[in-house]
Specification:
The complex is a heterodimer. Chain A is an alpha/beta fold. Chain A has helices at about 45-50, 75-80, 95-105, 110-125, 125-130, 140-155, 170-185, 200-205, 220-225, 230-235, and strands spanning about 5-15, 20-30, 35, 55-65, 65-70, 80-85, 160-165, 190-195, 205-210, 215-220. In chain A, the strands form two sheets. Chain A has a six-stranded mixed β-sheet, with helices on both faces. In chain A, strands 2-1-4-5 form a four-stranded antiparallel β-sheet, covered by helices on one side. In chain A, helix 3 (about 95-105) runs parallel beside helix 6 (about 140-155). Chain B has a two-stranded antiparallel ribbon. The chains are: A alpha/beta, B mainly alpha.
């Protein structure tokens, strides 16, 4: 099955420093949830950043619908339909909730259309309507994550990539976050998820990708990754489903 | 009592000018994280444009202000493209830009000194030496006009940032550059525009400064400390904070000048800079710095 997004032999790193990714591969299938796991320093976040053009690609390629994304800036990748929600939500703390949503649709030229889409988002997430005039920096962690996730939906992207969406959140809030992700997947949005809580991430995913030292060790259905005793021992704290 | 009112009015009038002088510095820092040490020397260039336009053609500094702003904004575009753009992805961006702006300030000082000499200049339209009198209180027309025009420009800037389609991405980039980039903002273009606006504001401030203060090329070293104290007290990157700090410190400096002695007036800004960095480094409206 041909991937919507194909990452092949990717080499990337920060500035003039050593390469963090050393031949990573990834095949993203349309409409599915993909969870990338691996130990600290494996290159998970670097992979997402390189895909959207936040880091230059030194070798290898990233192809979206058959076209190379090499050399594109993040705003250009976004216009193709790929959206990244980085760690710590990346909100604009001094802007209101509504203004943050407007920034989510920054690349939509039709202002009326943008407002209509924001209204639609507020209908789906009533908490955002209740808090529309509140500064984003004063929201709770869970509300901030909801805003960050909902904001991506304004553009109706084809792929949304989340970097550690559960970071620093209470277990109940984490469940809500994964609930929103499920909602997005049900709407046909393809999801790539980097998650430290590998067990939780894989349980909500269709496919699992294991990275180590910048290389892809395994790409398989998520339940297979969960059952793999080696992976369970190495990355899931010995809690494989086998 | 009249002395207190008089001193406060003089401080407030100067505060407006300082606010505009600091606003461009604050905007550039907010968006680009560049402490533009050359900002006061660019203000100086604006002051020379106004001075020579008045001296050679009798053009009022208030009328030449948009021209000075436009010339400096164009200079800002050139500087950004030639000097700062290539540093944007540098791992040592902060260090490099401090050194680059320091070097730029030196070059500007040398150029202005060579072309215009180090003679003290001041533009002298009629209102610069005139005043309004209300009972025992006088309000210098020059400072009043300069302060009002400054506030008008800053208000226009605030409206632009708050409501225009291009203001949103500038505010967003100021608050979270990475997030803005990920939401489709061309942060390089935003940086270019912000730098041009910031330097353009320096040009506008220069036109006003030309009839409020006497100036000469190396005076920018005194101004940078004053402007840094405003930007630091206001909170690095907060234009509103800078404006508020300009009024607080210039009124304070006016009182120090009146009650302690004129020579101590400028020291108020230096002491404020030191104390703020020591006690509250994030200033009034800045983000609290992270501990290493």
């Amino acid at each position: 099955m041909s991937g919507l997004l194909e990452v092949t032999d990717l080499v990337a790193g920060y500035g003039n420093g050593p390469a963090i990714l050393n031949g990573a591969r990834l095949s993203v299938r349309p409409g599915e949830v993909h969870c990338v796991i691996g130990p600290n320093g494996a290159g998970k976040s670097t992979l997402l950043k390189a895909i959207v053009g936040m880091l230059p690609i030194r070798a290898g390629d990233v192809r979206f619908k058959g076209e190379s994304l090499k050399g594109l800036r993040p705003d250009q990748a976004l216009r193709r339909g790929i959206c990244l929600v980085p760690q710590e939500r990346a909100l604009f703390p001094a802007m209101t909730v509504r203004e943050n949503l407007r920034m989510g649709g920054y690349s939509i030229p039709d202002k009326a259309e943008l407002e209509r889409r924001i209204d639609g988002i507020e209908e789906r997430f009533p908490i955002l309507r209740e808090r529309r005039g509140q500064r984003a920096g004063t929201l709770s962690g869970g509300q901030q994550q909801t805003l960050a996730m909902a904001r991506t939906m304004i553009l109706k992207p084809e792929i949304v990539m989340f970097d550690e969406p559960s970071l620093g959140l209470a277990p109940k809030v984490v469940a809500e976050v994964f609930g929103i992700m499920k909602l997005m997947a049900a709407e046909g949005i393809t999801i790539v998820l980097v998650e430290q809580n590998a067990l939780m991430g894989l349980k909500h995913a269709d496919r699992g990708i294991v990275l180590d030292l910048g290389k892809t060790l395994l790409e398989a259905p998520a339940d297979e990754v969960l059952r793999d005793p080696r992976i369970g021992e190495l990355y899931l704290g010995g809690r494989s489903e086998a | 009592m009249a002395d207190i009112v008089q001193t406060a009015i003089l401080g407030l009038a100067l505060g407006g000018v300082y606010a505009l002088m600091g606003a461009g510095l604050s905007l550039v820092f907010g968006v680009m994280r560049i402490v533009n040490l050359a900002h006061p020397s660019l203000i100086m260039a604006g002051a020379y444009i106004a001075y020579w336009a008045f001296r050679l053609a009798g053009v009022d500094p208030l009328l030449i202000l948009p021209v000075a702003a436009a010339i400096l904004a164009g200079t800002g575009v050139l500087l950004y493209k030639l000097v700062f753009e290539r540093e944007a992805r540098s791992a040592k961006y902060s260090e490099m830009t401090v050194l680059l702006t320091f070097a730029l300030a030196m070059v500007m000082e040398g150029l202005l000194g060579t072309v215009f000499t180090n003679t003290q200049r001041v533009t002298s339209p009629d209102y610069a030496t005139d005043a309004f009198f209300i009972a025992d209180v006088f309000i210098p027309k020059g400072q009043l006009y300069a302060g009002m025009v400054s506030l008008g420009i800053i208000s226009a800037l605030a409206l632009f940032l708050k409501h225009s389609r291009f203001g949103y991405p500038i505010r967003a980039t100021t608050q979270n550059r990475e997030a803005a980039e990920l939401l489709g903002v061309n942060v390089n273009l935003v940086s270019l525009a912000s730098f041009a606006i910031g330097v353009g504001l320096a040009g506008a401030a220069g036109a006003l400064v030309s009839f409020v203060f006497s100036f000469f090329p190396s005076k920018h070293w005194e101004w940078i400390v004053i402007l840094m104290s405003l930007v630091v007290l206001g909170g690095m990157g907060s234009i509103f904070g800078t404006v508020l700090a300009a009024f607080i410190l210039s009124v304070l400096a006016a009182f120090v000048g009146f009650y302690v002695g004129a020579v101590w007036s400028t020291l108020t800004f230096f002491v404020a800079l030191f104390v703020v960095l020591l006690v509250r480094p994030q200033g009034l409206f800045g983000e609290k710095p992270e501990l290493a």
